[in-house]
Write a structure and sequence with these properties.
2 domains; four-stranded antiparallel β-sheet; 25% helix; alpha+beta; 8 strands; Immunoglobulin-like; 256 residues; extended
Length: 256
């Protein structure tokens, strides 16, 4: 057997990616000229490398992922013509127009040399700003207000891990090292990952993922874990008190 088809046991190698979407409000002129005049937004859903180029106005995409990804299939809402869109070369993205949010299935197929099964991801298309306006916090702002707020970004960081890769595929991966994430912020972080105390810093400009965000995310998860544990302890104490009250009532009824 060729050494290229032998798996390298005990080794894992990963590639950082982001997936998600950006959306902008159509101008009145674009809506007027559109065949479906109820459409309000233009959006792009994409799979990209996690690092952003310094001179780029998009999130991520510093690296060409075509060296290990053969195809990305985006499964849109069934109301779209040809809802399963196959993209066989970078950039792995689909741009459409519409008015509603829905879940998009993303299927990543790797090059044959990988010998790996496709990966399935799911992304909820985000059209409306993360900050609601007006009296009803659950309602999206009017399109003219949303247009002033600028593009909406919704991106998820992930790492595709290859365990015990074939030697040939490992050679391909190691010959294309990913661009490292910046250690500190050069741009705003994605709005929905920002701490409430730093939301103002995340407004405006194109967001970017950084190495520091991993530590920040771990801290947020730890805080959430502590909050859950505290709530569990509170509920457990309340349950014990209720059980004591029930036992007392049973004794009182038995003495009656």
């Amino acid at each position: 057997m060729s050494t290229e088809r032998i798996r390298v046991k005990g080794l894992s190698i990963y590639r950082p990616i982001i997936y998600g979407n950006t959306a902008v409000v159509l101008t009145p002129e674009e809506r007027e000229a559109h065949p479906s005049r109820e459409y309000t937004h233009r959006w792009t859903v994409a799979v990209r490398s996690a690092s952003s180029a310094e001179d780029s106005d998009i999130v991520g995409g510093a690296d060409d992922l075509g060296y290990f990804i053969r195809r990305v299939t985006f499964k849109l809402h069934e109301t779209y013509p040809n809802p399963s869109r196959n993209v066989d070369k970078p950039p792995f993205e689909v741009t459409e127009t519409g008015w509603g949010e829905f879940e998009i299935q993303i299927r990543i197929t790797f090059i044959p040399e990988a010998g790996e099964k496709p990966v399935l991801l799911y992304h909820h298309l985000k059209l409306h700003p993360w900050t609601a306006s007006g009296a009803d916090a659950d309602a999206p702002p009017p399109t003219d207000v949303a247009a002033q707020l600028g593009p909406v970004h919704s991106w998820q960081y992930d790492e595709i891990v290859f365990t015990d890769p074939f030697q040939q595929f490992l050679n391909t991966l190691t010959s294309h090292p990913p661009t490292q994430l910046p250690k500190t912020r050069r741009r705003p972080v994605p709005f929905h990952t920002a701490n409430p105390s730093s939301l103002d810093a995340s407004k405006g400009g194109v967001p970017e993922f950084t190495a520091a965000m991993e530590k920040e995310e771990i801290q947020r998860l730890e805080e959430a874990r502590k909050s859950v544990v505290a709530e569990q302890e509170k509920l457990h104490a309340s349950l014990i008190e209720k059980e004591k009250e029930l036992e007392k009532l049973r004794r009182d009824l038995g003495d009656a």
